[in-house]
Design goal:
The structure is a homodimer.
Chain A lengths: L3 H16 L14 E4 L5 E3 L5 E6 L3 H18 L7 E3 L6 E7 L13 E5 L4 E7 H14 L1 E3 L2 E5 L1 E5 L5 E7 L7 H13 L4 E8 L2 E2 L8 H6 L7 H12 L4 E6 L6 H6 L28 H17 L4 E3 L8 H4 L2 H9 L5 H18 L3 E5 L12 E4 L3 H9 L3 E4 L11 H5 L13 H4 L2 E8 L9 H5 L2 H10 L7 H14 L9 H11 L5 H8 L1 E3 L4 H4 L14 H4 L5 H14 L7 H13 L1 H11 L1 H4 L2 H23 L5 H14 L6 E3 L2 H12 L14
Helix pairs in contact in A: 1-17, 1-22, 2-3, 4-6, 8-11, 19-24, 22-23, 22-28, 23-26, 24-26, 26-27, 26-28, 27-28
C-alpha cells in the first residue's frame, strides 16, 4: 500500500491553510499584481456554448491567441473541438478589447499588462496590447475549475503586469537533443506561466543542432543526424510567437564548439581532425580568433541564422574557453604579441569585438555569458549571468544590461524554495541606483542537458519553473513559500493537460526499472529521495558518464524535490514542538513503518532487476531510519527518556544514511534525527500530549 | 488508501500461474505458432552497444524497419538516440536475413512468416520477406525485459506465421475527428501486435475528413475545418507502410453522406440545403443513384482518392440506407419503374454496380459492408460483415471474400473475453468447405466514434485490441482466457512506451472531474464500474447526445472492462467453493470495506464537482453492496446461517444496485450476491476453514 499520496495531500491542505490568509487560495501562478476576489458575486459558468468576442482591437495575432485559448480551455474542461464559439463582434461571455496590436516580431519591453474582471454574467479582459491580452487569457484559464455548477470561474477583479520584461527558460538541445514535440509542449508550459523568452542553446561540443544551408557540414557532420531543419525552426519560432514568447538562439563560440570543427576543422585553433565530443566538461577546442577566414565564416553563418531567427537578440555564448589550443598554437601566440593581446581573455575580447560587429551588421544585438563583458564592447549588448548578482551589478554600473541565471540552474537539482528565494535584486543589485536597476532585465532558468532525455526533461523543468516564473513576474513581496508550494502543486498537475510528462513519465520509468506493474515499494523509496545535487552526479560516477550513457536509472526517474520529505519534516517539526494535531502521530508512524519495511518489500523487485538492485542500499538505509524513528516514538509515547547509548547508536545510523548511494540522497534523515533527539532529551520523561491520539 | 492496485496484481499472479502450465509465461501477444523456451541456455544482453546487422537481403524497407525497431528498443530500455548500432554487414548481436523485399505497395496475402532464434551470444531472425522480418522484430521487442544482468531477452526458438492475412482495426475519424498524432500512436500499437490493415472511416453524416482538390467544398464545407490534408494522408500511409500496415480508406455511400451534401447538394436525393449532422443515428439523406452527374462526380472523386490511397482495396461503405429520400422523390420513383428496380435494395444494388465499375476503372477492388452483397457484383469484391458468420458463410458460398467485424465492435464496450471468444470460423463458417474457407480473409475490430475523443479513444481500443489481434494471428487453439488476460495486462502497460494513453489518460480525466489531486475515492468507484454496453448510452441519455456533447464524464474515464471486478469474482468463486487460500478472505474483506466507505469518502468530492455528483448514486449502491458482503462474511466467519429475511433484504439491495446510474454499471453485484447466498445456505452452519485466516 502507498501512503505517499495521502501524506502529500496533507502538504497541500497545510499549505493552503497558510495561503488562505489571503482572501481565498486561487490557483494562480504567477500571482498577479492585484487580485480582488469578489466573493458572493457568483461564478461565470463555462458551458459548451461558452463564447468569446472581441469588442475592440481585433487583429490576426489576437485571433490566433483566442483560438489557442479556446483549445486550451477544451483541454481543461474535456470539451470538444466544436464546443465554444468565437466572434469578432457581439457580446461573448468573455469580451476582449485591446488598444493596439503588438509588434509583428515581439520585442523586449512591450507592454504585457492587462485587467480582467469576471462577474457571473460575463467577463471582460482589457489590455493595451495583444500581448497583454495573451497574459490575461492565461490567468482566465488558470481560474477555471470544476464546481457544483459545472466548470466555472469565480468573480474576480485582477490588475496585472510583469515585474521584469525578460522572463526566460533556456533549453540546451545540444548535449542531448530535444525533439520538436518536447520543445512545443514546453512552450505551452512557458506560456501558461507567462514566460516570454525561449533561449535555445543550439550548439555545443556534443552537437550542432540547426540545419545550415550555407555551411551544411555543420549539421551534416556535427549532429549525428539529430538537428532541426530550417522549416522546423520556423515552425517553432511561429509557435512561440503565437504564445507571446520570443526565441533567442545561442550558438556558443569560440569555445564549446567541437561539433562545428568536425565539418570545418579550419575554424579551430588546433590541427584536428575532430569528432563529436561524447564526454561532458570543458574541452580544449576553440575557434581561431586570429584568422580572417574565421570571421568570414561567422559573417556568413550569422547572416544566415539572423534571417532564420527574427528576434533582436543573438546569443554568442562566450563562456568557458580554457585557452589551451591558443597556448599551443605558435601562430596565435605570434598574433597576440603583434596585437598586444596579453592574455587569452584579451584575445577572446578581441574575438568578441569582431563578432559583435558581425552580429550588429546583421541587425542583431549581441548577448553572451558573463565572460564576454569587457569595456570595449558597445553598451547595447546583454550579459546573461551565471555568476550572480555581483556580476550583474558591475555590468549595470558600466552601463550594460543583464539578466540573472545564477540561482536558476534547473540541472543542479535544487529545491524550488531555493530558486524561489533568488531575486534579481538582492545583494549588490539591490543597492543599485534606480537608473542602473533598469539595466537588470530579468532572468532565465537554465536546463543544461547532460542528464536529461526527451523522457525526463519535463520533470527537471516542471513544476519548479513555474515558481521561478512567479519570481520574475510577480511583485517582489510575493514570497510566501507555503503558498508557492501549494499553488505550484496545483499548477503542476494542471500543466498535465499540455502533454508535459513531469507527472506521468515517472510511473512509466519506474515500471520499466522494475519490469513489473506493482511498483509500490519502489515508489515509497523514490518518494523520499532526491538525485544528488550540483555536479556530484559526475563526480560520484563509478565510470565516466557520456552522451551515450542511458538515462534510465532511479536517479533519472526521481523528481528533483521530494515534496513528501518536505511534508514529513513539517509534521515532525510540529510534533516535537508539541503542536500536535489529531492524526499527526498516526501519519508519522505510518510513514516510518512503511520505510522500515521498505528493504524487505523492495527485495523481490531487486532480485529481478539490476536497475532496482542499485537502489537496495538506499532502501536499507531508509529502513534503518524508519526503525529508528519508530523506536523514538515509542519512547515518547511511553514518556520514557531514551538512553544515551540508544541515542548514539541511532544517530550513527542517521549519519550512515546521509551519504548518497546510487547517487540518491535520502531526504528524511534530518526529521528522523529530530525524533531521536526529542526522545533522548530531558523533556521527554513526561508523556507528550500526542500519546492520547494513538 | 487505494487497495485496487494490490488486488489487481493478484489477478496477474493468478493468471500467470495458469499460463505457467506453458513452459514459462513470456510477454508475447499475439502468441506465436510455435515457441520453445530454451531454458538454461542463458540470455542475450541488450546493452548500449547492442547491434543489428543484415546478413542477407538488405533493402530500403528493411533498413527503415530496423531503424524503427531500434527506436522502439530505445523506448523499452530507456536508451538514447546514439545507443545501439546498425550495419548492413558484419555480425550484429541480432542478425537478420530475408529472402526478398516485400511489395513496394503492401498487398493482401504477402508472406508474413518468420523464424527467430535467440541464444546467449546472438540472435538470428530469418524471414522470406521484409514483412515477415518486421513481425519477427516485434516479437524480439516483446521479449525484452529487465533482469539482474540488465535488459536482456531469453533464449528461445520461435516459428511463427499468421492465421489470417487480413487483421485490421477500423477507426471512425468522422463522427469525432482523430488528430494525426493519435492515428500515429495507434499505428504503433497496431504494429506491436502484428495487425496489418488500418481501415480509415473518412466520411460520415457528421464530417468529411479528407482534402479533395478536385471537389474542395467536400472538406471546406463538410468538416468544420477538421480534415486531413493530402500531405497528411500521404504521411500516414507511409508511416503505416513502414510498419507493415495497409491503409484502406472508406468513403461511405450512398447513405451516411450528409456532410458531402453541404458543399454539393446536387448529389443528394432530396432538395436540401444541408448542414453537417450533429446528431447520432441513421439519417435520410442519400446520394441520388439515378443521375449520371452523380457517377461523373464519383468518377472524379474516386479517381483522386485512388491515387492518394495506394492500397488495392477501396471501401465504399454501403450500409444503412433508409431509403426515405428515394421514396419521397418522384423522379427517382419514375427511374425505378423505368428500370424495373422493385425495391430500394434493388436501387442500391444498381448504384453499387455503377460504383464498382468506377472503382475498378481506377484500379481498385471494391469493399463494402454486408448490404452491398448482391449476386450481380463481380466476385472480386470483399464483404466486411457487421452481421456475423452466417452472412460471411453465405457470401463465401457465393464466391465472395469476406472479413468478420461482428463481435469485434470496440464501441459496444464489451469485455475482452467476449471478443476473444469470437472466431471467424465458428457456426456457419466452421462448416464451410475448405475452398470456401479460403474466402474468409480475417477480421477487423471497429472503433466507431460517437463517444470517443482524442483523449479517450486509446482506452476504448487498448488493450482489448491486442486480444483480438491474437485471435486473428495465433493458431485457433490458443484460447486460454486466463493466459490472455495475464499477457494482455503486460502488453497493455508495455504499449505505454508508444505514447498510447489508455493507462495514463484516466487519472488525468479523474483529476479534472474531481478538481482535486486526491482522487482515491473516485478511483475505488471507477475500478469496479463499467460504462453501459451496446447502444444503451444513447438509449439511456436524459438529453440527446450530439457531436458537441463533452466527453468528460465518469463514463468517459471508466475503462471498458473492470479487471478489478473480474478478479474479485474469481476470489469469491474460490472462497464460496471452499478453495480458500491464506490472505484470500482478508483481501475480500478489504475490498468490501473500501466499498462500504465509498459513499462517505466520495461525499466531499461530490460537493465540489457536478461531474462527481452524478456518480454519487452509483457510489451509494456500491456502499450497500460492500456492507452486505461484509455482513455475509460475518455470518460465514461465525458459522452461523444467515436468516432468510436478512438474505431477502440483501438480495433486494443487490437488485437495486443492478440498473445503471450515471450510465455506469457496478460489476461486483454478482459476486456479492454469491457471498449472501453462501451465508444463507444450509451448508453455512459449520465454520469455514477460512475463519482461521482472519
Amino acid at each position: 500500500m502507498r501512503i505517499g499520496w495521502a501524506l502529500l495531500m496533507t502538504v497541500m491542505v497545510m499549505a493552503s491553510t497558510t495561503a488562505e490568509q489571503e482572501p481565498q487560495l486561487l490557483r494562480l501562478m504567477p500571482w498577479p499584481e492585484s487580485v480582488k476576489n469578489v466573493s458572493g458575486s457568483g461564478r461565470l459558468i463555462i458551458g459548451n456554448s461558452f463564447s468569446v468576442s472581441v469588442s475592440a482591437g481585433a487583429n490576426p495575432q489576437l485571433r490566433r491567441a483566442v483560438a489557442i485559448f479556446l483549445d486550451d480551455l477544451r483541454r481543461h474542461t474535456g470539451s470538444l473541438p466544436l464546443d465554444f464559439a468565437f466572434s469578432e463582434s457581439g457580446t461573448g461571455q468573455l469580451q476582449i478589447s485591446v488598444d493596439h496590436a503588438s509588434k509583428e516580431v515581439q520585442e523586449l519591453g512591450e507592454d504585457e499588462s492587462y485587467g480582467l474582471e469576471v462577474a457571473a454574467s460575463a467577463a471582460t479582459l482589457k489590455a493595451p496590447t495583444t500581448l497583454g491580452a495573451m497574459r490575461g487569457l492565461q490567468t482566465f484559464l488558470q481560474l477555471v475549475e470544476i464546481t457544483p455548477q459545472g466548470f466555472s470561474i469565480p468573480a474576480v477583479v485582477i490588475q496585472d503586469k510583469p515585474r521584469f520584461p525578460w522572463r526566460g527558460l533556456m533549453i540546451d538541445s545540444s548535449r542531448h537533443f530535444t525533439p520538436i514535440d518536447v520543445v512545443k509542449r514546453n512552450l505551452d508550459g512557458m506560456a501558461a506561466v507567462k514566460l516570454n523568452v525561449f533561449h535555445w542553446h543550439l550548439s555545443e561540443n556534443q552537437g550542432f543542432r540547426v540545419e545550415s544551408r550555407r555551411f551544411p557540414k555543420l549539421h551534416e557532420m556535427g549532429s549525428d543526424g539529430l538537428y532541426y531543419t530550417q522549416e522546423e525552426v520556423r515552425d517553432i519560432v511561429s509557435y512561440a510567437r503565437d504564445r507571446g514568447i520570443r526565441v533567442v538562439p545561442e550558438f556558443d563560440m569560440p569555445g564549446h564548439s567541437t561539433s562545428w570543427f568536425v565539418g570545418y576543422p579550419e575554424l579551430a585553433s588546433g590541427p584536428g581532425p575532430y569528432s563529436i565530443e561524447r564526454k561532458w566538461g570543458v574541452f580544449d577546442p576553440a575557434m581561431d580568433p586570429t584568422r580572417e577566414s574565421t570571421y568570414k565564416f561567422l559573417d556568413g553563418f550569422i547572416g544566415e541564422m539572423a534571417k532564420l531567427f527574427p528576434d533582436e537578440f543573438f546569443h554568442i555564448g562566450g563562456d568557458e574557453v580554457n585557452g589551451k589550443q591558443w597556448d599551443a598554437n605558435a601562430r596565435i601566440q605570434q598574433f597576440m604579441r603583434a596585437h598586444s593581446l596579453k592574455t587569452n581573455a584579451d584575445l577572446q575580447a578581441y574575438f568578441n569585438e569582431r563578432v559583435q560587429k558581425i552580429v550588429a551588421k546583421h541587425g542583431k544585438t549581441m548577448e553572451g555569458w558573463d565572460e564576454i563583458l569587457r569595456p570595449d564592447l558597445p553598451k547595447s549588448i546583454v550579459i546573461q549571468s551565471w555568476r550572480g548578482q555581483k556580476s550583474l551589478a558591475d555590468a549595470a554600473q558600466q552601463g550594460y544590461r543583464g539578466l540573472l541565471s545564477s540561482g536558476y540552474y534547473l540541472d543542479l537539482i535544487n529545491p524550488t524554495s531555493q530558486h524561489y528565494a533568488v531575486d534579481p535584486f538582492t545583494g549588490p543589485t539591490a543597492s543599485l541606483a534606480d537608473a542602473d536597476k533598469q539595466k537588470i532585465l530579468g532572468g532565465e532558468a537554465c536546463m543544461w542537458a547532460e542528464y536529461v532525455s526527451a523522457e525526463n526533461i519535463d520533470s527537471r523543468i516542471w513544476p519548479r519553473m513555474a515558481a521561478i516564473a512567479e519570481r520574475l513576474w510577480s511583485p517582489q513581496n510575493v514570497t510566501d513559500t507555503n503558498s508557492m508550494y501549494a499553488r505550484m502543486d496545483e499548477i503542476g498537475r494542471w500543466l498535465d493537460a499540455y502533454g508535459l510528462t513531469h507527472n506521468t513519465a515517472r510511473n512509466f520509468m519506474l515500471q520499466r526499472i522494475a519490469g513489473a506493474a506493482d511498483i509500490s515499494a519502489l515508489q515509497t523509496l523514490v518518494d523520499v529521495v532526491e538525485p544528488v545535487k550540483g555536479y556530484s552526479r559526475y563526480d560520484l560516477a563509478s565510470s565516466e558518464p557520456t552522451a551515450l550513457t542511458a538515462l534510465n536509472r532511479l536517479i533519472d526517474a526521481a523528481p528533483p524535490e521530494s515534496l513528501f520529505a518536505r511534508h514529513f519534516s513539517m509534521l515532525v517539526d510540529a510534533f516535537v514542538a508539541g503542536q500536535i494535531k489529531p492524526g499527526m502521530e498516526i501519519e508519522i508512524r505510518a510513514a516510518l513503518s512503511n520505510w522500515k519495511d521498505n528493504a524487505e518489500n523492495l527485495g523481490p523487485l531487486a532480485e529481478k532487476s539490476s536497475l532496482v538492485q542499485e537502489g537496495l542500499p538506499v532502501s536499507q538505509n531508509l529502513s534503518a531510519l524508519g526503525a529508528a524513528g519508530l523506536q523514538a516514538l515509542d519512547y515518547l509515547d511511553r514518556g520514557e527518556r531514551a538512553p544515551e547509548n540508544w541515542k548514539n547508536t541511532q544517530i550513527a545510523l542517521v549519519n550512515q544514511a546521509a551519504p548518497p548511494k546510487a547517487q540518491l540522497l535520502i531526504m528524511v534523515g534530518a526529521p528522523v534525527q529530530k525524533l531521536i533527539l526529542a526522545a533522548a532529551s530531558s523533556g521527554a520523561n513526561a508523556p507528550l500530549p500526542a500519546a492520547s491520539t494513538k
